[in-house]
Design a protein that fits this description.
- By secondary structure, this protein is of the alpha/beta class.
- It has a single domain, classed as NAD(P)-binding Rossmann-like Domain (Rossmann fold, 3-Layer(aba) Sandwich).
- 40% of the residues lie in helices and 14% in strands.
- It contains 9 helices and 7 strands, in the order αβαβαβαβααβαβααβ.
- A 7-stranded parallel beta sheet has the order 3-2-1-4-5-6-7, sandwiched between helices.
- Helix 2 packs across helix 9 and helix 6 runs parallel beside helix 7.
- The two termini are 32 Å apart.
- The mean pLDDT is 95.
- The structure holds nicotinamide-adenine-dinucleotide.
- Nicotinamide-adenine-dinucleotide binds next to helix 2.
Length: 272
């Protein structure tokens, strides 16, 4: 992140003013694969605002790419978590309970669909591909909420990453459209169910960003150049932009917000 500040990017003085809005908060971050991951931008901003972090990695193959990032973030907990593997998400929460005794923020920044289903028409998608995409990209958020609930005795914030393709048809987003629509709906129902416990739930919906997950979408380059041309702000968002909004939602500044899908897209989604 720039330390000099440019355009809309925070300067050192901005950071000073933002202060330590998450000091003492304990945040779990799922979804860092590399330094381009949206989850990494979110973790970096939350850390900068004072949060303690728990970071997960997908598997042994991913570990060497994530470990240096977790170290740079000063993550106190670093653990494997493939949400499709029985018991791994539960093990992360067991460790958080043992080492931290509670949790304030949990971020789900993961998605997956088998390539053939992701790149084909929705109408041709396989039942199995749809099920896998729905389980990893949506139901695992619900499982995460269930595990977080008892650890958030003093309230907390649950956050998931969505995309505009949930609401409008974005060519080539294919079966991820209905999967993200289910995720955004799950966010609203979880917000309703957990609201009385002061657990707030949000989806964050970034504009297109060049990440590994995005590279699986057909003609993603077209989406990026269209976004630059059409977004009122006139440039792509970066992972720190997404991080700033995500972190904001976890601070007391957002204490009366819940159940929303918050766009971080330079205004792209308002365009007809
Ligand atoms: P990324 O490839 O950096 O992150 C995706 C993450 O999902 C990886 O860390 C991967 O390990 C994880 N993952 C996949 N299967 C998993 C499993 N079974 N268990 C645990 N983790 C698993 O890409 P990203 O763009 O940072 O994606 C993060 C989130 O942001 C996703 O939900 C994606 O749909 C969403 N999103 C991305 C864009 C974009 O343009 N890149 C835009 C809007 C929303």
């Amino acid at each position: 992140m720039s330390d000099t500040g440019s355009g809309n990017h925070p300067s050192p003085r901005d950071w000073e003013l933002l202060g330590a809005a998450l000091r003492g908060k304990r945040a779990l971050v799922l979804g860092i694969a590399n330094a381009h991951s949206i989850a990494y931008g979110c973790a970096r901003v939350m850390r900068r605002l004072g949060a303690e972090l728990a970071v997960t990695y997908l598997n042994e193959k991913a570990k060497p790419h994530v470990e240096p990032l977790a170290q740079a973030l000063g993550a106190g907990i670093f653990a494997p978590c493939d949400v499709s593997r029985e018991g791994e998400l539960e093990a992360v929460f067991a460790r958080i309970e043992k080492e931290w005794g509670g949790l304030d923020v949990a971020l789900h920044s993961i998605a997956f669909a088998p390539k053939a289903d992701l790149q084909g028409r929705l109408v041709d998608s396989s039942g199995e591909g749809f099920k896998v995409a729905m389980d990893i990209s949506c139901h695992s958020f619900i499982r995460m909420a269930r595990l977080a609930e008892p650890l958030m005795a003093d309230g907390g914030t649950l956050l998931a990453m969505s995309y505009h393709g949930a609401e409008k048809v974005v060519p080539n987003y294919n079966l991820m459209g209905p999967v993200k629509a289910a995720l955004e709906s799950a966010v609203r129902y979880l917000a309703y169910e957990l609201g009385p416990k002061d657990i707030r739930v949000h989806a964050v919906s970034p504009g297109p960003l060049k990440t590994r997950a995005a590279s699986g979408l057909k003609d993603f380059g077209v989406l990026l150049s269209e976004a630059t041309q059409r977004a009122p702000i006139g440039e792509l968002v970066d992972i720190d932009d997404v991080g700033l909004t995500t972190a904001f939602l976890a601070t007391p500044f957002a204490r009366r917000l819940t159940g929303m899908t918050v766009y971080v897209d330079g205004g792209l989604s308002i365009m007809g």
